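Researcher: Re-running this chain for the archive, since the previous output was lost when a drive failed. Same request as before.
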Amino acid sequence: GLRIMASTISAGTLTVTVSESISLNGSTMDATNSLTIGSINEISQRIVTVDVGALRTLFEFGTVIAPGKFIVANVKYIRITNKDDNAVAGINLASAASNCWVAINPMQTLMMSAQSGLEGVASAVVGSPALADLTKITGFNQLLPFDLDCYIALT
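Model: Regenerated structure tokens:
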């Protein structure tokens, strides 16, 4: 007969902390900001090499799980870190109807969090954006290959 198993994974709380520290003219201008996200029960982390001239899919999103695809409603946090010390990483954030490119400089990070859907790309005019759920995040560089540390947390 059919055997149904219960998960043995206990959800946890993800804590992300960003700290800045600098002294200007003897004055300390530090800041620490933390984000906590509860009920995380799925983590995926991998290093992706983006070859010269190649578009590499980092994450895909939809309503059902598939190879390399995550359920968009369950995504709560994404981090992409450019591990290269020389190449700028081009990152494309795409929705079904729109997309935008952002650059991640060497050894820098792009972070995104979502509490109700993974809205991130706007269509229409700048003054009245209509955010839409992301469908894909892609990396690209036409000059140098680079490595990206890709991390995603889901409920």
